[in-house]
Each structure stands twice: as structure tokens, then as C-alpha cells.
Amino acid sequence: MSEHPRVREVTSLSNATVKELRALHDRKGRRESGLFLAEGARTALEALDNGRAPEILVYHREGRERDVVRRLRFACLEAGGECLEVDDAVLAKIARKDNPQSVVAAFRWTRRPFAEVDPAAARVFVALDRVRDPGNLGTIVRTADAVGAGGVLLVGDTCDPASVEAVRASMGSIFAVPVFEGSEADFLALASRWPGSVVGTALPASKHYRRADLRSPILLVMGNEQAGVTDAIAAACTDLVRIPMQGRADSLNLAIATAVALYGIAEPEDTALG
Ligand code: SAM
Question: Rounded CA gap, 182 and 23, in Å?
Fold first, then answer.
């Protein structure tokens, strides 16, 4: 066991920090503490690479000498955080599942309003109108990362980007891509002064998505899983486009549609590719 005063061995399932971490599976717990959970050493390292250290680091005590754990522990302690060395039972309790990953870390969520969006920061941004599914949200953050998007804007009443499911689906990209949150009114205000194209995707649109009128920076707008984009948001778009479909499906899954649209209108350059 480490000599550091902020490294503790915890075996009690009723330990207060264990309870606090377990509460981060619920939106209420995350709101109250301002923290969120990331599972796995790889995701925690992704955070470190993006200049973010965990406030609380939990790892299996048998893995305390692993290089990756040493690196995470050093960063956590340097930033004033605390480390818990735990056994299988405590890890499972915190992760709320059997066979959890051997590292779990709690990070502080930074809430960013739309006023902080800098359109000059990137070629493309993604806005999601009332996204409901955290798996879709995390997958979209990951895809936004892959195309070098400047951020994902969450409009209106959305699922929580800091949920365990969203963070898991983002595969660490949640630490690389800024997520902004705001109301529909805030979004309409931003769209009205957006310096480039605001491209909405909508099933009723009659224009092919690859023929969208594109002026950088592009703000790609995606609709809610059930209802699509609101009329007000559709009216704020400079162009409305549709991805062609055949067959019986009446729409694409939101995360799939976002990936197709993002690559169709803002595919990144990769000079290493033949
Ligand atoms: N019933 C909803 C509707 O009428 O809009 C379906 C919503 S769809 C599951 C969720 C979002 O994915 C849509 O609002 C749109 O942004 C995007 N989407 C899905 N399929 C699309 C397509 N073929 N063309 C354009 N956008 C699409």
C-alpha cells in the first residue's frame, strides 16, 4: 500500500466515497457532485492526454504497480485528487456490474453554454436537437472527434452527456470534443449569427445531402430520434438535406445518419492514405 495520505485501501462496501461514486450512475448524483464516471484505463488515459486528471481514481489493488495505473495515480495526486485501492467486490459495487474494468475514474464535468462556441475553431460542428439516447450521443461525439469537429451542441432537453453510457460509447472522445449545452432559443440565436452554413438533415427534405450549400464553418443539425428537428430549428437552417434510402426503413438511426452526413460534407483529409 502507498504511503501517500490520499491513497487509501478500501474494502468496505459502505465506504462514503464508494457510495458517492456509485451515485454517479444517476443524473441526480452527477448534478449534485459535478462529477462523472469513466470506465477503463484506456479512457482515463485519453483524459490525461487531453489535460484532464481524475478527481477520484479507483483501481484494483492487484494492479497498483501497472505502468498505466502508476501514470494515472501520479496525475490524480498531482492534481489534488484521491486514489482508492479496492478489491473485486468494491469495484463491482462502484461499476454496478459484475466483471467491471479494473480502473474507474471520476472527473469533473465542465458545463459549456453556447456562448462559448467559437465558430472559427473548426470547419464543422454538430448540433443535436433533443437527443434522447446516450449511446447515440456518445457515438456521435466519437464520430465528431474522428472528423475533427469543433464541438457537439446539445439543444433543448437532452439525455445527459456525462452518463456512464454516453461516456462509454464515446470511447474517450468525450475528453477531446467540447460538448456545449443550451436551450432551443439559445440555439436559434447562435444559428442566426452563424458565419457559415447551417445544414439541417430532415426526412422531408428534397435535396441530396452531398449537394448541400456548404460555406465553412458548417453547423450540421440532426433531429430527435422520434420527432426529427423542430419547425423553428428547420426554419433556422440555411439548407435542409436528406440522405437517400431504399427499402423498408423509414429513417436511419441518428448516430448512423450523423456519420454519413459528417463524412459526406466534411470528410477530413488523411494524407497518409493512398
Ligand atoms: N421520425 C423521425 C422524423 O420524421 O424525422 C425520424 C428521426 S431519425 C431516426 C433521427 C434523425 O436522424 C433525423 O431527425 C435526421 O436528423 C437524421 N436522419 C435519419 N435518417 C435520415 C435521412 N435519410 N436523411 C436525413 N436525415 C436523416
Answer: 25
Ligand 1: residues within 6 Å at CB?
201-203, 222-223, 225-226, 228-229, 242-243, 245, 251-252, 254, 257
**28 phi and psi, to 5 degrees?**
-60, -45
**Residue 274 domain-assigned (yes or no):** no
What's the one-letter identity of residue 152? V
Range of the domain at 103: 7-108
Domain final residue, candidates 80, 108, 136: 108
Mutation test residue for ligand 1: of 136, 199, 201, the one with most atoms within 8 Å of CB: 201
Quote the radius of gyration of the chain (alpha carbons, Å): 21
Residue 1 lies in a domain: no
Question: pLDDT tens, 24-55?
Answer: 999 999 999 999 999 999 999 999 999 999 99
Which of 203, 211, 229, 240 has the most ligand 1 atoms within 8 A of CB, as the residue to mutate?
203
What ipTM does this complex have?
0.98
| Domain end marker among 108, 124, 145 | 108
